[in-house]
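thread: overnight batch results

M.L. [08:02]
morning all. the overnight job finished for the chain we discussed friday. pasting input first so we're all looking at the same thing
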Amino acid sequence: MIWRPALALLLTFTLCPPSQGKTPREAIHLRDSSRLATLEAQDQRDRQATDIDWETVATRDQVRRGEVLRLLKQGRLRTAQDHYRAALIFQHGESLDDTMQAFALARMAMSLDPRHPSAAWLAAAAWDRSLLLRQKTQWYGTQYELDEKAGTLTLSPVEDAAVSDDERKTMGLPSLSEARARHRRAPVKGH
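M.L. [08:03]
and the structure it wrote out:
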């Protein structure tokens, strides 16, 4: 009876396409959601216009978050990229709940793919935003405020001792001094 499992294994290797040298885990490739890719593209396009109507964008953001939530409840977020895209859409929400959802989704993306190029940064940004929404000081230094008079961005207050520059680096972030210097002199489009 040992021959049946061996035959099944032999047929699997013979009839299945090669994985091009990938490990068995890498050979099982889940496809990213095309719908989430579309929603992310819409989200980003809304923010790249030269003259942004923020009321219209807020309405579109709310619709997108609703659709992402539906996809999440249906179990249709499967890959790190799916979770990252969903997190980005929730990061543009207006409430603490939206921001905490963004944080959870970004952390899931990090868990699914520790080498994801932007998931750690987004998790840090969502965490910082959640702190600011609770009237607390951010940790990572990802959030900025607009100086209307000067037309520049300045770094929102940071709890210097909460996170080291080494941890910032592992999250794909600049050091705190670099973050402060970078945006101190950066003009904002449209000003």
